[in-house]
Task: structure prediction
Amino acid sequence: YYTVKVLDDFADIVNAVEKKVDILFPAGISTFGRQIEWAPFRTAVPFGYRKGDILSGNASPTPGTDEKGATAAIKSYCKIDHVKQACGSALDIKLYPATVKGENGTNALVSLIKGFVKLGGFFMQIDVVDANVLKRAQENPKEYKTLSVRVSGWNARFVTLNKEWQNMIIERTTLGV
Result:
């Protein structure tokens, strides 16, 4: 409830600002690659975040808090009034490869996407990753030159990212369908 209220109030305030030099600056929710850059500015809070913890990607759950899976993350995300967030509010979902494997996995993924759309979802980025594969890629980059991952609004070859980014991607929670 509180997150939706804060985001609604934020959007109302931002969207009430007049154009500046014929440019409109609509509200939006995004980190788009600034999770690490902005982490030093994060302060500690009583409900568990420590000073300097990495921020969640975009409008996604904070790493470690999405304990109920992708469907719960989608339901929470879809409570946001995305019309007010005209600059965008992406939901980044990471899925285990086994959950989308074969015909059953494909059907589960299609159902997940249909549910997202039916609930009013606006912008979802799905990455199918295995943390163990990513760890092996860190140890043996030459064997994983073509391994791509979703970073935050774009894809990158995992082995071309610096260690800090690689670790963040490994540590992000991976959900099942």
Summary: Residues 148 and 157 are 4 Å apart (CA to CA). The radius of gyration is 17 Å. The longest strand covers residues 91-95.
